[in-house]
Amino acid sequence: MKKLFLIALLACFISISGTSQTKITVKSNEQMNPFLTAYDTPFNVPPFDKIKNEHFIPAIKYGINEEKAEIEAITLNPQAPTFENTIAMLDGSGKMLGEVSMTFNNLQGVNTSEELQNLAKEASPLFSAHRDDILLNEKLFARIKTVYEQQEKLTLTAEQQMLLEKTYKRFVRNGANLNAEQKDKLRKLNEELSMLSLTFDENLLAETNAYRLIIEDKKQLRGLPEGVIQASAEAAKEAGLDGKWLFTVHKPSMIPFLQYADDRSLREKIFKAYINRCDNNNKNDNKEIASKEASLRFERAMLLGYKSHADYILEENMAKNPESVYKFLDKVMEPALKMAKKEVTELQAMIDAEGGKFKLEAWDWWYYAEKLKMQKYDLDEEALRPYFKMENVLSGMFGVANKLFGLQFKELSWMPIYQEDVKVYEVVEADGSHVGILYMDFYPRASKGGGAWMTNFREQSKKNGENIPPVILMATNFTKPTADKPALLNYEEVSTLYHEFGHALHGLFSDCTYETISGTAVSRDFVELPSQIMENWAGEPEVMKTYAFHYQTGEVIPQNLMDKMKNSKHFNQGFTTVEYLSASYLDMDWHILKTAELQNAISFENASMQRIGLIPEIVVRYRTPYFSHIFAGGYSAGYYAYIWAEILDADAFEAFTQKGIFDPATALSFRKNILEKGGTEDPMKLYIQFRGQEPDINALLKRRGLITE
User: Fold this and answer.
1) Average pLDDT of adjacent 10-residue blocks, the chain of 709 residues
2) Phi, psi of 17 (to 5 degrees)
3) N or C: which end of the chain has fewer CB within 10 A?
4) How far is CA 566 from CA 509, 562, 707, in A?
5) Burial grade of 249 (CB within 10 A; 0-12, 13-18, 19 or more)
6) pLDDT at position 31
């Protein structure tokens, strides 16, 4: 996913990254603050080897003051407002602050600590107040409004027109037209929301790291593949538990356990630990925080003139309104739920045939689905893992980018990094010209958030005609290497890697002048198109033969295994789709609230799931207390975006399959019309320019096997 930490603060920042043009030299605790002097690093990347936690707050405060001076220069300009002296200058302000905040927030996500978390609590109100100082600046808005009202008389490029439109709307949508009393209330709401979001994320990380399933009796490991057993033994050893086996609720540890462990009671134990995170009435509980966030978001939406938070958010998305989202979700949910119920019948029949005297429960699904897949398709997911060595998968993925776009990836082992596992690559065009820098952070650790995401240390933009190239970060939580085995991925992890790489390409290929609308700065339900379309290449036989080599023998993945994967592509799609859609409904339900009254989070969630008819054998993918996408990330009233974008990606990939998955003309069109454009034009217009038509939802339903061809 596309994820920015403290997104509630940064998503609406006027400009948040780039190369500072005016820096001074200061000292902090007798150490030179690297943020306050020109970076002496290759490609102007953050000097991770010099950055210390003590540098952040002084640099943030300095950056805020610097941007305040830049804003004041705009507002005090005696010349009449123009696009260049107001809109463009605003877009170019705050470069140094963006540099600091990007680094600060990204490190919270990938390499946090108690000290960094405390600094975040100190920084959060500073960011919130500064953001509001800009967006509620009456003199600044007056100049923006003057330019906006004169736009028909101006000669603007399409990109300039879009920047003007989005700048004006951003100020209006963030309270520029409110009176003084209302603005004061908005400031308080924004500050409280930013702190709640921060606390939600910290609680989830702490709760996830806290759980440990320690196994002492090897008999309880029956059914688990040897590689999983070995990894758990090494995890135990690292935790000082020699001779035992350790499992956690981090997915690389938990999912194989749910798939293969014969011990049903232990499957139940780890599954319940996972779904009850932050719902244990302890210091990490998130129920009240989530309810409070939903309440405050409603208050803010009302203050700004919207019926609900969802109406506020969706105005800027392709969906436009909650009604469109619900209509879309219902259209997919009906056939998906029907298929999921058939899957329940099949799984229960398998339990009964084995003599099981119990009803299928949610913690049984993964286990019996894996057995059923083996029975129906002779496909064991673990049989695939030896062919998906991390380094080979990475090489194959880079090869896809090379064949599609001519890109080359040069590993830079000498670059400054924030953690020893991190890899850094220079990305260059076929002619050797520089595109950008790509950081890749693959494996889980206690200091790192869960899931996978792409973000930036610097966004692409142009200044005085000179391109400022992007610095991108891809973060994942994949199965780690063991003492005698390299990192061997499952196919879901392979797909995830391609997914985040798609986001990275979107950021790397950006060819925009203005940072505010460059790269992945597009609507939430469009940003997933570049990521999800890349997943298609991962499973193409032509591509798999370039990376799927057995890590011991070097044998290319056999054709019969690829055939089994193809034959089973629709397997378990009822479960997968319903589990996802249930979270999308839950997100929407939280954000169409028409009251600020605090909800009982669990009662609310149960009512939401009952309304859509969620069957008891499936638990919503993200329960409220750990739904970080919407309560600690940027996906509130937007989690539906993944499957919305899947309509686009299913339809778009047909353009490749019709002419060949590496057709140069189709790849060039996708690059020029989608990847390079950022948010400079309407998303549907961009899509039609590439595809020649609007997308068809049937492409999605067919792909998932929810309707017949």
Assistant:
1) 41 33 42 88 96 97 98 98 98 96 96 96 96 97 98 95 97 97 97 97 96 97 96 95 97 96 98 98 98 98 98 96 97 97 98 96 98 95 94 98 98 97 97 98 94 97 95 96 93 97 98 97 95 97 97 96 95 97 98 97 98 98 98 95 94 94 98 98 96 90 86
2) -160, 175
3) C
4) 31, 6, 17
5) buried
6) 55
Is residue 662 within 8 Å of residue 404, measured between CB atoms? yes
The predicted pLDDT at position 10 comes to 37
CA–CA separation, 150 vs 82, rounded Å? 9
CA dist., res. 278 & res. 248, Å (int): 15
Q: Rounded to whole angstroms, how far apart are CA atoms 433 and 582?
A: 45
Which residues, including other chains, have CB under 8 Å from residue 35's CB and lie 6 or more apart? 51, 55, 56, 59, 62, 63, 96, 99, 100, 103
- Separation of alpha carbons 587 and 608, rounded Å: 10
Q: Which of 590, 13, 603 is nearest to 297 (CA)?
A: 590
The owner of tokens 């005698």 is 484
62: amino acid identity, one letter: Y
User: CA 465 to CA 72: how far, in whole Å?
Assistant: 25
**Sole residue written with tokens 């060595």:** 389
Q: Check 370, 381, 500, 579 and give the catalytic one.
A: 500
Report how far residue 577's alpha carbon sits from residue 93's, in angstroms, rounded to the nearest whole number.
43
Six token digits for residue 219: 């008999």
Domains of the chain: 7-135+137-173 (1.10.1370.40), 211-275 (no CATH), 386-567+642-703 (1.10.1370.40)
Picking from 316, 400, 325, 317, the residue whose alpha carbon sits closest to that of residue 670 is: 400
- List beta partners, residue 456: 472
- Whether 248 and 212 have beta carbons less than 8 Å apart is answered as yes
State the pLDDT at residue 7: 34
- Residue 608's contacts (CB-CB under 8 Å, 6 or more residues apart) are 585, 586, 589
- Backbone angles phi and psi of 410, in degrees to 5: -110, 115
